[in-house]
User: Which sequence fits this backbone?
């Protein structure tokens, strides 16, 4: 009797990890506003090209290989392979007449990164490259 | 059997569905500067587009196909699929330990290179820094991903930049 129960428990554990529903395509996360804050910073510059080049250099410093870059759209995507696959997209767009808004979103293996600390580390690195302070946005 | 089940449950409890990003994955490391130097070379003269063009020639010489380029940002990405590990080694493994062991050995790999050209601060339009980064994914004969890694071998970068130096010279001379 113990054995089937054990198998059922194991199956339940494995089942808990399975989430291959197509609803993941439209998954906006639990708190979209909070996530945007975590993933975004404002910089006191209006030079989009220079900012994108600094984003690219920062990603390279962090061990990423750039996959795509688009100046017009203001986006850069890169992947870091280090025993794991970490993919990140960074977008740069005007926030107001004096600032650019930089937003980064990452996926680690097959999961979205929603923890604030990796983004904080990324923006710290980017701020050093830009010689500017990354400012939190509301 | 009961023990095996308990062990699996314990293992799942430890691993679970947690797949958390390493704390330092997006932080600069002590060896960041060293790696930047390894992966970068400075070129004087020419235009950014000419150097990017020379880069495309070099990666094509090396058998890569161009995946993506963004000229205004000085970015080019190329990749190639090649065998990983030698066929002789697989045959020896198959003879010694059977087909399963041979199949679990690395079989194919996708190598990607990204080249980024950046003007040297204060010398815009005159000097450029070219930075190349390589990474690869390796699969075994079962199609299972066995390795995901950045390539750090200094010889790889030295050889690449030697080829690029020659190519930039040839481009400059229009040969």
Assistant:
């Amino acid at each position: 009797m113990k054995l089937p129960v054990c198998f059922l428990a194991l199956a339940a554990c494995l089942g808990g990890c399975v989430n291959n529903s197509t609803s993941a395509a439209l998954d906006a996360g639990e708190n979209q506003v909070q996530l945007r804050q975590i993933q975004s910073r404002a910089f006191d510059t209006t030079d989009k090209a220079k900012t994108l080049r600094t984003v690219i250099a920062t990603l390279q410093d962090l061990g990423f290989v750039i996959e795509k870059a688009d100046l017009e759209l203001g986006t850069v995507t890169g992947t870091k392979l280090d025993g794991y696959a970490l993919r990140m997209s960074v977008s740069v767009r005007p926030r107001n007449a004096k600032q650019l808004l930089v937003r980064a979103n990452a996926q680690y293996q097959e999961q979205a990164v929603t923890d604030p600390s990796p983004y904080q580390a990324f923006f710290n690195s980017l701020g050093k490259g830009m010689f500017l302070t990354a400012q939190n946005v509301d | 059997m009961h023990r095996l089940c308990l062990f699996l449950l314990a293992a799942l409890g430890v691993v679970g569905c947690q797949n958390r990003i390493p704390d330092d994955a997006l932080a600069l490391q002590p060896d960041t500067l060293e790696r930047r130097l390894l992966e970068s070379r400075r070129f004087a003269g020419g235009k950014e587009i000419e150097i990017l063009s020379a880069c495309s020639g070099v990666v094509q010489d090396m058998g890569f196909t161009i995946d993506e380029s963004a000229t205004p940002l000085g970015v080019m990405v190329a990749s190639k699929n090649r065998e990983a590990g030698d066929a002789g080694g697989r045959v020896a493994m198959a003879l010694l330990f059977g087909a399963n062991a041979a199949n679990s050995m690395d079989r194919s790999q996708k190598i990607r290179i990204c080249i980024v050209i950046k003007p040297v601060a204060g010398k815009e339009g005159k000097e450029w820094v070219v930075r190349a980064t390589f990474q690869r994914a390796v699969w075994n004969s079962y199609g299972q991903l066995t390795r995901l890694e950045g390539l750090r071998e200094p010889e790889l970068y030295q050889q690449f930049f030697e080829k690029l130096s020659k190519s930039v010279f040839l481009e400059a001379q229009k040969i």
In short: The helical segments of chain A are 2-17, 32-39, 48-61, 116-130. The longest strand of chain A covers residues 85-94.
